[in-house]
Fold:
Amino acid sequence: MTLTDRLDAALPQTQCTRCGYLDCRAYAEALAAGAADIDQCPPGGQEGVARLAAVLGVAEKPLNPAFGVEITTELVARVIESDCIGCTKCIQACPVDAILGGPNQMHTVITAECTGCELCVPPCPTDCIEMIEAPTLPPPFLRAEQSLGRYRARTARLARWAADDEAARARKKAANPLATALARAKGLPT
Structure:
């Protein structure tokens, strides 16, 4: 197991981006490279700082408030159903697919899967998402493996969709002889 793997395993896997990185893995990579500090993960809180310090063999330090404050009670998103217009922007923003719904349909949050990352809140055009306390929900470290699995599945699905879209565009382009002829005339790859 690499240093990056050990650091990634020590993180809560909320994929919240509060640390300043795209996801928990990118933060772990930055930590391993010495480009980030151990005090940048609010969802992990002081326990997370201690876990990262132990992996790196460095002294523990307080959580850096510039990245947020430690959460003492788990928070989850909740859709105010009467205000939801079904725009799907929250679904697109959720890194763990914890929001269900379809275009022009009311959305709902799968509470047990929500990491409390809050990434669904800013894109909502009707402000119909609120963060509520979920005191019975286990802390993120106890759900990290499940959250990471959901994040990886979502990432793989989005990559598949992008590849499928690219293949469809290539097939459409190949089926259009006029577009191919124009591209050749302009010296563009066909």
About this structure: The chain is about 40% helix and 5% strand. The helical segments are 3-9, 24-32, 45-56, 89-93, 140-174, 177-185.
